[in-house]
Design goal:
The protein is built from 9 helices and 12 strands. With 309 residues, it is an alpha/beta fold. The chain has one domain: Metallo-beta-lactamase, Chain A (4-Layer Sandwich), CATH 3.60.15.10. The structure holds zinc ion.
């Protein structure tokens, strides 16, 4: 009888300890998750001073995740939305340069990931601009980042709301090679798929004084993760997309090299060189760097394929 009472009280103590641990875990989650969400929401991005790259092309992004403003007499074009949490930085940068967000009439995107499409909804709301996205990324953007091409754990994070971004309204969808114009501004959409199915490289001429320079902003040269946790091989679709994208990128006669992240095209170094240069545009004219980075990414792709054999 005594031993039964002891066993019962022992079981109760165990239950109380487990319940205590569960309560602590819930409290910790309630305290940590909001902070984690805030940190994820801006990806640790710090502000960067906005500046003119060349002619009517301005940098208005954060330290690493880029955003470009193309100004024109009939309205402006904004390329990329950054993280959900960096939209206020972009708005501030545009205002610092003396431009009005309500003059932004067209909103574009490099690809549907959280760090480039996350701020589109806020920027669209502030500007009233029309959003153009590539057909192949449209479903991902309108779902706030969910894609059949994401590996399962990534989609779980998105479903949980931790990495889901506010979905903007898609006004127009385009295919590879589409031309988008606003007054004298002309952009060509090159769908360089792989990183996402509709990853887009934007090419546009910039009139800088008497010279015309072709700016090319690469959607992304980062190789995608395999789509399955259990099969780390790229399928035939992904391989063909990437092979085709390298051919497209090499064929573009880029003068000004840009991309969806600042590090690949050395924005920080070029910004510093710009202040000392006689012609502040010169550091950004970098066809050599553009071709070298494509070559490096292609070599990495070949190595990955070999490793997957
Ligand atoms: Zn990405």
């Amino acid at each position: 009888m005594i031993s039964t009472v002891r066993t019962k009280s022992g079981k109760n103590r165990k239950r109380r300890i487990l319940a205590g641990i569960a309560v602590l875990l819930v409290v910790a989650a309630l305290l940590v998750v909001p902070k984690w969400k805030v940190a994820i929401n801006n990806g640790g991005q710090l502000p960067r001073q906005p500046f003119r790259i060349a002619g009517n092309l301005y940098y208005v992004g954060s330290r690493d995740v880029t955003c470009f403003l193309l100004t024109g007499p009939e309205g402006h074009v904004l390329i990329d939305g950054g993280y959900p949490g960096t939209a206020p930085m972009i708005l501030k940068n545009i205002a610092t340069l003396g431009f009005r967000i309500t003059d932004v009439k067209i909103l574009l995107n490099s690809h549907a990931h959280f760090d480039h499409a996350g701020g589109l909804a806020a920027l669209q709301q502030a500007s009233g601009a029309q959003l153009w996205v590539s057909e192949a990324d449209a479903a991902m953007i309108s779902s706030g980042g969910i894609s059949y091409r994401n590996m399962a754990p990534v989609n779980w994070l998105i479903y949980s709301g931790l990495m889901r971004y506010p979905a903007p309204q898609i006004d127009h969808q385009f295919k590879d090679g589409a031309q988008i114009s606003l007054g004298p501004i002309r952009l060509t959409a090159h769908v360089t798929a792989g990183h996402t199915p509709g990853c887009t490289t934007w090419a546009f001429p910039v009139q800088d004084g008497k010279r015309e320079l072709l700016a090319v902003s690469i959607g992304s040269l980062s190789l995608p993760m395999p789509t399955s946790l259990f099969n780390w091989k790229y399928d035939a679709t992904l391989r063909h997309e990437l092979e085709r994208s390298f051919v497209t990128l090499r064929s573009l006669p880029a003068d000004i090299y840009l991309s969806s992240h600042a590090r690949p095209f050395s924005l920080k170094r070029k910004f510093e060189e710009r202040t000392a240069a006689k012609d502040p545009v010169t550091p950004f004219i970098d066809r050599k760097g553009y071709l070298e980075d494509i070559k490096k990414a292609e070599a990495q792709f070949c190595k990955t394929l070999e490793e997957q054999q």
